[in-house]
Amino acid sequence: MRSRLFTPGPTRIPDAVRAATAQPLPYHRGPEFKKIFLETLDQLKYFFQTQHQVLVLTCSGTGGMEACVTNLLGHGDRVLAIEGGKFGERWAEISRAFGLEVISMKLEWGKSPEPEELKKLLQQSVNVRAVFCTHSETSTGARADIQALSEIVHAHSEALFIVDGITSVGVLPFYFDQWQIDACVSGSQKGAMSPPGLALVALNPRAWQRHALANLPRYYFDFTAARTAAQEGNTSWTPAITAILGLAESLCRIRHKGLEHYWQHYAHLASATRAGMQALHLEILPQHPSAALTAVKAPAGIDGREIVKTLRERFGATVAGGQGHLKGKIFRVTHMGAYDYLDMIAIMSAVELTLSALGWKIELGAGLTAMQQAYHQQLQE
Amino acid sequence: MRSRLFTPGPTRIPDAVRAATAQPLPYHRGPEFKKIFLETLDQLKYFFQTQHQVLVLTCSGTGGMEACVTNLLGHGDRVLAIEGGKFGERWAEISRAFGLEVISMKLEWGKSPEPEELKKLLQQSVNVRAVFCTHSETSTGARADIQALSEIVHAHSEALFIVDGITSVGVLPFYFDQWQIDACVSGSQKGAMSPPGLALVALNPRAWQRHALANLPRYYFDFTAARTAAQEGNTSWTPAITAILGLAESLCRIRHKGLEHYWQHYAHLASATRAGMQALHLEILPQHPSAALTAVKAPAGIDGREIVKTLRERFGATVAGGQGHLKGKIFRVTHMGAYDYLDMIAIMSAVELTLSALGWKIELGAGLTAMQQAYHQQLQE
């Protein structure tokens, strides 16, 4: 039985990327690393669809989120957090930890934010300095309409629009410059298909203007230090060198095929998977699903944790369970990462057999058939 | 020409460790990772010579230093930083960034702190909440007498004694519990011989008591979150998984041979290297050298940067230059990491030929001979 990873981060990474991370370490202040890092910074502009400098920080995505808060805001600032899941809530938690005043726009988990509701909230509130939003909410599988939300933010406030793109950049269509996003955080282990350990932060000139005024305390995550270093192909501190070697290899591959290839590929895997799950009479949690992952409700009477456990024990397949109050209620299967259709048909078979073993009455093969039909249809288009 | 890394971090890591980092990624919330991580946390107790929980944070050593400041101190606290090089100064910089009042004990770079001077300073100052010290100051190659300094701190103040052990733990004799150190930061890429990306933080019960009162803002680096997660073989946020796989492999190897083996091994490499350098009439910068690295003054009239450049271009050998006001004045050769005597004799030969090419009059072979004699002598002991 071979271990198979189907979690929405870390995701399966290409073998060539794994091999790249195992190279002998270059010195991070030497010319060999500098060349690799400058090329990677260039690839990151493509990855985010921006003309602006992208920063690479050694930390998880959460560290990148904290960096946005402490580098772009000042003591006691008012911010608005769109909270539709665990990662939306994290923006509010970080903001409160640094003494900011948080207006919460709470959504039922699985729902996507309505631009009109955000507009109302912004019209009722004065002096909101930042709006935080999650593009692809990994805890629920929901996708937000970032472009529409960005327009609302800029039309009705002076706030920076700061986006968690951790499971969206490289996965869903994403245009940092065109959509006028002010700051966006992503990670190395999601759409970028490399090992975890790096946060990637895109910033536009408006964000840099605010940074110049931002007076929250920071040192390790300081953007000025990171940008100054990056301009010379350097990092403020010793970086996760092997993760950067992996990222460099992965971004080359992504650029070679083009982002549009991946956006369509993940959309295909996601819609075929949803078709399969629905044919098993399983309910998809999110109203507007992200192509990064599919979050499926556990059938009535079956604990989602049992589904996760059985998939692992019988098939060596690791999917993610639910987080927060969704613990035991859902399971989540990734599409982003180094996956193809045959990987997805394999996990669908494992899901069918698992549900059947746990007592859920299904017609064995119904999910596989529906998924295959959906995929066949995609090939015709 | 093969590339060879002789920098004091990242250091050369064992091939088996590199291979370990290239394994397929386990899910960081699954049982496979949990098992590896709990074993690693146990090995870290041995590595630091402590009975207490060691925390693993995804960041560089500097991130671990910031974590100690924000988790162990409160608004406006007074601290004392022993500053004998770039890394000593960093404690003061981080403390100031978070609004602390810093008493600086400045040393000439290359000098080690005198316990009696620290005693005087502590006697003159009231209410010092922490004393920061660098065990092995990587920018100068100097070693501090941590045991003696710890006694002074505890005898003459209520301060926590917080140690930067980034290039000392696993390299120099180090006893966290026995020496009554309250907090110590190390990194994955130095004595732990694995890729960079992780800070390792040991804390004693006194530190945890202070943590309970510490009110500086923090989120990503919060020790309570890290400890709560660690007790279940978990991490607060997605960790640098591949770096942990490497660290796990490396710490197993270190425990197998025993820390004493490495302490003596590095001491031998360092003293043989110093003997060789001195036979070339080169001056060792530090008064009390650390076995982690040897910092050598560039001869009069030769720019240290030229030495570094020539070593790289002619021999593919990367050593580190000077930092801060020592830029161009010194070069630094590591001993910590996966190195043996033959690696050191090779870099000695490259140094001799490089200095000769740059016009320094030396008797070719004098360094090699002295180094070999020193090594031969060690074998007899």
Overview of this structure, please?
Two copies of one chain form a homodimer. Chain A contains 13 helices and 13 strands. By secondary structure, chain A is an alpha/beta fold. Chain A folds into two domains: 4-8 and 259-380, Alpha-Beta Complex (Aspartate Aminotransferase, domain 1); 15-256, Aspartate Aminotransferase, domain 2, CATH 3.40.640. In chain A, the strands form four sheets. A seven-stranded mixed sheet of chain A has the order 2-10-9-8-5-3-4, with helices on both faces. In chain A, helix 4 links the parallel strand 3 (78-83) and strand 4. The longest helix of chain A has 21 residues, at 259-279. The two termini of chain A are 36 Å apart. The interface between A and B is large, with 55 and 55 residues.
List the helices and strands and how they pair.
Two copies of one chain form a homodimer.
Chain A: E1 4-5, H1 15-21, H2 31-48, E2 54-58, H3 61-72, E3 78-83, H4 86-97, E4 101-106, H5 115-124, E5 128-134, E6 136-137, E7 142-143, H6 146-156, E8 160-164, E9 183-187, E10 198-203, H7 205-213, H8 223-230, H9 241-257, H10 259-279, E11 293-297, H11 304-315, E12 317-318, E13 330-334, H12 341-357, H13 366-380
Parallel strand pairs in A: 1-12, 3-4, 3-5, 5-8, 8-9
Antiparallel strand pairs in A: 2-10, 6-7, 9-10, 11-13
